[in-house]
Amino acid sequence: MPIQAIVNTAHSLSYYLKLQEVTANNLANSETDAFKADRLAAHIVPGAEGAGAVPVETLDLQQGTLRDTSRPLDLALQGPGFFVVRTNLGERLTRGGSYTLDGQGRLTDPHGDPLLGPEGAIVLSGGNADVRGDGTIFVDGTYAGRLRIENVADPANLLKEEKGRFIPTSATSPVDSGGTIVHQGSVEDANIDPILSMVDMITIQRAYSANIDALRAMDSVLGIVTGEVGKV
Fold this sequence. Notes:
The protein contains two helices and 20 strands. The protein has 232 residues and is α+β, with helices and mostly antiparallel strands.
């Protein structure tokens, strides 16, 4: 039926617009430390015939490549879980990045928010900081604290926030011992291949253009049919 074909094509155009938006955002963040990509897939809703496919967005938590920086306050995680930072809006989860010490000696992220341990903010004073794989911190050989490395029951349901942070939608709990390793002097790259993302953008634009051409053709056919029927 021409009308249904037009409706289906309109659904396809809507999907490709959303897909382009998601892909463009991923590409724009390809240089953001520890960025996690969003993925979009079309799902058919059972029993909703004629409604078209529904775009479903999911969070891709696949591990990014660890890049060596040799900076002692750059931290990255290998394995599941997140560091915890305290913000004005509450605790947030993050996969790491480049940290610094503020005027109070607190270990803070690039936005000035403190990285947390079980007792609160991590305060470092002294010379060389040594961050072990389990998150314990020693300064000049003296124990200085331990990083909170936590996860949620269903990480895919985390809410993304700006600055590479996530809002937990359920209670957090420490990651399993040995399941996640803290790497000092490294940062995690975004889990995106910018070249493939650019190829995806071209493919999406071509698919969108093809659907526009199809919609114009069907509209022309419908106009002709309607005009001919009117003459009968």
